[in-house]
Amino acid sequence: MTMKNTQRLLQIMQRLRDPETGCSWDKKQNFSTLIPYTLEEAYEVVDAIERNDMQDLKSELGDLLFQVVFHSQLAEEQDLFDFEQVAAGVADKLVRRHPHVFSDVQYTDETEQHQAWETLKAAERAEKEAENHTILSGVAKNLPALVQCKKIQDRAANHGFDWTEIEPVYAKVIEELDEVKEAWESGDKQHIEEEIGDLLLVAVNLARHMQVEPEQALKKSTRRFEYIEHKVLQSGREVKQCTLDELDGLWDEAKIALKNK
Q1: What's the CATH code, domain 145-211?
Q2: Domain ranges for the chain
Q3: What does the pLDDT look like over 157-216, one tens digit per residue?
Q4: What single string gives the DSSP state of each residue in 209-256?
Q5: CB of 195 closer than 8 Å to CB of 202
Q6: What is the pLDDT of residues 233-259, one digit of tens each?
Q7: CATH number for domain 1-89, candidates 1.25.40.10, 1.10.287.1080, 2.60.120.260, 2.40.50.140
Q8: Prediction pTM value
């Protein structure tokens, strides 16, 4: 397998950042200014996958790779690390986390393999925590709220702060829902926000105990609005021209139509 295009990409990035002959826009960028572009490209990769558009996925993966190359170039200019070290780091991590592939370790089933994977990840985190003195080190602060919440709950669970059964989680959802109602009846906006936050947090916990990714679950449910609008437009009307009963019926129809998509 040739790596000539990888080398070509790295060389192009170096030219774009050349202090004298490079691109004026690229030369002005830094780690912070690239954040929105890096996030956007990651989401566009997800979008292409969800649309099952493989040609677009190839293009979007290229755009995301460019962000990795860009950040690596910035780091190399500051003598921090380079692209080769980034690649080496992830290669080492993959070999370390797959001893059943790269050594003579054997697992009896996927459950045992998953447990071993989590143990290895926990050991890596423990090493980082020893350096940073916090169990939440490494959880990115600008993740989507649902993703961040689940990651934090996973970390807390690994340190013993979690229910061992699902029934108490159900009960907690009901408890938080009742507290939302009490806050709403009080009319205290700040209190309402706090209780809504607690309700969302425990809903994420329920999803986690059911082994459901809350971010993906919410995105799939939200797609029903697109389905409803599409159906209404097909009828030659706008959403505001429909009755609530009609829209509610389309909502139920969307739940069935999009069930396995």
Answers
A1: 1.10.287.1080
A2: 1-89, 145-211, 213-261
A3: 877 888 889 999 999 999 999 999 999 999 999 999 999 999 999 999 999 999 898 988
A4: HTT--HHHHHHHHHHHHHHHHHHHHHTT--GGGS-HHHHHHHHHHHHH
A5: no
A6: 999 999 999 999 999 999 999 988 888
A7: 1.10.287.1080
A8: 0.61
